[in-house]
Amino acid sequence: MPKILEERGFRFIVWPNDHEPAHVHVKKNAGELVLNVSGSEPVPIEIRGQMPNKTVNQILDIAEENLATLKQGWEKYHGCKG
């Protein structure tokens, strides 16, 4: 699973051959947040494991600042799909 970005201990990754919409999996410790990155801002899809709201907000801040990078990471493995 390719890592697209790592910041503040959060790993933003994609799965090759994954389903649409364009999304990244963000992991830290025992938690995982799946973010839709196909639009003009990242949108949480699913939380797996334990992840406090403060952590979700930190991830959203990082994702907003790096949205173009996250989209490019998705497109590298899946083409220009949304």
UniProtKB/TrEMBL annotation:
One Pfam family of this chain: DUF4160
Protein name per the record: DUF4160 domain-containing protein
